[in-house]
Amino acid sequence: MALSDKQKHHIEAWQASGLTKSAYCRQVGLSYKTFTRWCRLARQAADSDAPALIPVRLQPESTASGSLSLRWPQGHVLEIPGSVSPHWLGELLQCLA
Questions:
Q1: Where are the alpha helices (DSSP H) in the chain?
Q2: Cα–Cα distances in Å, from 4 out to 1, 56, 62, 82?
Q3: CB 21 within 8 A of CB 43
Q4: Highest averaged pLDDT of the listed ranges 1-15, 26-40, 41-55, 69-83
Q5: What pLDDT score does 14 carry?
Q6: Distance from C-alpha of 34 to C-alpha of 27, rounded to nearest angstrom
Q7: Fewer CB under 10 Å: which end of the chain, C or N?
């Protein structure tokens, strides 16, 4: 079931309100059970829209430091040992996506 614009508006208004779900529902006269279902459907839709692959750009370092640096556009940097398993690194990247 796709959410209507009205349902999406209520979810966005609740998130911006800082209220609990139950308080928001009381304030606007919504059924808590129904609103919770809308939120679950919105979360499932967002999860299904998530990219299956994470874009990665490799840049050679001028010196071999034996570590990997993951850099986000926002400026965050995570340095990990270069000896980590590729499987573990893949799981880490999926968790961070």
A1: 5-17, 21-28, 32-49, 86-96
A2: 9, 35, 52, 47
A3: no
A4: 26-40
A5: 92
A6: 15
A7: N
In single-letter form, the type of residue at position 81 comes to P
- Nearest one of 14, 40, 39 to 28, comparing CA atoms: 14
- Answer whether 69's CB lies under 8 Å from 78's CB: yes
Is this structure's pTM higher than 0.90? Answer: no
Q: Is 69 left (phi over 0), alpha (psi -120 to 50) or beta?
A: beta
**Residue whose structure tokens are 């308080």:** 23
Interacting residues of 41 by C-beta distance below 8 A, sequence separation 6+: 1, 3
Give residue 50's pLDDT band: very low, low, confident or very high (50, 70, 90): low
Secondary structure of residue 65 in the 3-state scheme = coil
